[in-house]
Design a protein that fits this description.
Shape: globular
Distance between the termini: 33 Å
CATH superfamily of the largest domain: Aldolase class I
CATH architecture of the largest domain: Alpha-Beta Barrel
CATH class of the largest domain: Alpha Beta
CATH topology of the largest domain: TIM Barrel
Structural class: alpha/beta
Strand content: 15-25%
Length: 531
């Protein structure tokens, strides 16, 4: 049994990291006895022609993809292209979007044969052995499929009780050197579940209201495995990492007991932390914490069932600063009943905290309370174009605030940040001698990240050929070609490519007379280009 899994494209501004959910799915498929490959289009270019070549080379029995609402259209279109190339291949999708929009997903994309709902690992362990036996699908809990034009949804599957029973995410199937080159942290989870009832969130519905914890020993085993790839930074992406202070202490004690040194960040709620637990986290390497505060208006916080107070937010920020952590807050624009006053309250409160913060627009995803009970709120949803559900544009209105007014509010903040950045870039470009070390490395780092993302997403390493009598000449021609294709200064391109070579992420195809370069650590791809 061969299973191909798709990592669909994801924008750079969303800080793409190795896809954790897909790696859990891949591990479950491997555990069920399947041979699995991941076609990763996050850190490589997607095209229908490339997909067909990869399908022909692997010849899978089934192909699947997971997606959030934002990239559901791109993921579903890849599944559509795969089905068109091989109509006999079983096509599957999973993830939060299709789990809560089964009918709409099947209607929009008849090429999808099967949907895996909610947590998928145990479902796949039963499904994979009978994936080609459609008559057996009725007995698999947690899926939906079509039969004779009708949607069949089997019984809902119970949540996984013992998360330690899950195999570690199959990151070995990913082109890890590409993610290392991009430089974002690797995400892990130490638990699943969230007891809170925020009306804009799917966490409670997707993974349950009761927190389920992985054992500290297994979590640190995974951390050590990630660090063995050469990564140095990890992000804990739990629904609520600080749900249990006792469990946080145990995890931090295990990290310190083993002497594992790495930097990490976490998301938390302001009503679940205090100075003591933050110092414990800091002692184990946590240097950054993010809080979703959402609004600076007390009535709004009650309306969205956030379950926090502004004073709790103030205290959490004070404690985080005292613990020596970089502290970040996020706020939402376009919540039900949003008004000029609630926006002003949020802006003033965000400034008061004196920490980095940012705004996101409300995206009422399928399955959220705010979408399902829309008639109960002062809110109008303006589009079902899922590609716009990226929290970066206004797609709702209230009785008092229009989308244009929401956009203007966020633009005012964004312009302040942009002006500060422009000044930093100006100093870097025009007065390098007086540019601070911090500003210099910020600009260099951003330029490097933008270039590397283009190299990755446009397959520039694979598609660039060079000639020359030696490695230095070849590198020069290679860098010139990339500079021509990207419009980026050759000197900077050369420095960046050299750094990728020195780090071992790319290598020349030949030690004597390199005609091209290739990414290392691509386990299943023929990385040596044809000359």
């Amino acid at each position: 049994m061969k299973i191909a899994l798709i990592a669909p494209p994801y924008p750079l501004e969303e800080a793409p990291s190795p896809p954790l959910g897909l790696c859990y799915v891949a591990a479950a498929c491997e555990k069920a006895g399947a041979q699995v490959r991941i076609f990763d289009y996050i850190v490589s270019k997607y095209s229908p022609e490339k997909l067909c070549r990869e399908l022909d080379a692997f010849r899978p029995d089934a192909i699947g993809s997971t997606a959030v609402t934002m990239n559901f259209p791109s993921a579903a279109n890849i599944i559509k292209a795969a089905k068109g190339h091989n109509p006999d291949m079983i096509t599957m999708m999973g993830g939060p979007h299709v789990s809560f929009d089964i009918e709409g997903s099947f209607r929009a994309y008849p090429e999808i044969d099967l949907i895996v709902r909610g947590e998928g690992e145990e479902t796949l362990s039963e499904l994979i052995p009978v994936i080609n036996e459609k008559s057996a699908w009725d007995d698999i809990n947690g899926i939906a499929f079509r039969r004779q034009g009708q949607i069949v949804a089997t019984e809902e599957r119970e949540l996984i009780k013992d998360l330690d029973s899950l195999p570690l995410p199959a990151r070995h199937l990913l082109p890890m050197s590409r993610y290392q080159a991009l430089g974002f942290p690797v995400s892990i989870i130490t638990s699943r579940g969230c007891p809170n009832k925020c009306i804009f969130c799917l966490g409670r519905k997707m993974v349950g209201y009761k927190a389920r914890f992985r054992s500290p020993a297994i979590v640190v085993d995974e951390i050590e495995h990630i660090l063995s790839y050469g990564f140095t930074r990890i992000n804990i992406a739990d629904d609520l990492f600080t749900a249990s202070k006792k469990r946080v202490r145990e995890l931090c004690e295990e990290i310190n007991r083993r002497g594992v040194k790495f930097d990490w960040s976490a998301f938390a709620r302001v009503n679940t932390v205090d100075l003591e637990i933050l110092k414990v986290m800091k002692s184990a390497g946590c240097d950054s914490i993010s809080f979703g505060i959402e609004s600076g208006n007390p009535e709004m916080l009650k309306r969205i069932k956030k379950g926090i107070t502004l004073e709790q937010a103030r205290e959490a920020v004070r404690s985080s600063k005292e613990a020596g952590m970089i502290t970040h807050a996020s706020f939402m624009v376009g919540l039900p009943g949003e008004s000029p006053k609630t926006l002003t309250d949020t802006s003033r409160f965000a400034e008061e905290l004196d920490i980095p913060y940012g705004y996101h627009y409300l995206s009422p995803f399928p399955g959220t309370t705010v979408r399902e009970d829309i008639d109960e709120y002062d809110l109008e949803i303006l589009t079902d174009d899922w590609s716009r559900y990226d929290a970066n544009s206004a797609i709702v209105r209230t009785s008092q605030v229009t989308p244009d007014e929401m956009t203007a509010f966020v633009a005012n903040y964004d312009n302040q940040i942009a002006n500060e950045w422009d000044e930093t870039v100006r100093a870097y470009n025009e007065d390098r001698d007086n540019c601070s070390e911090k500003d210099y490395f910020q600009v260099e780092g951003r330029k490097r990240m933008d270039l590397i993302y283009r190299i990755l997403s446009e397959d520039l390493i694979e598609e660039t050929r060079c000639t020359g009598s030696g490695s230095r000449d070849s590198l020069s021609v290679f860098s010139s070609s990339i500079a021509d294709r990207t419009g980026i200064d050759k000197t900077f391109v050369t420095k960046t490519v050299k750094s990728l070579i020195q780090a071992g992420y790319i290598k020349p195809a030949s030690a004597d007379v390199p005609k091209s370069f290739f990414w290392t650590h691509n386990r299943f791809q023929d990385t040596l280009p044809v000359s």
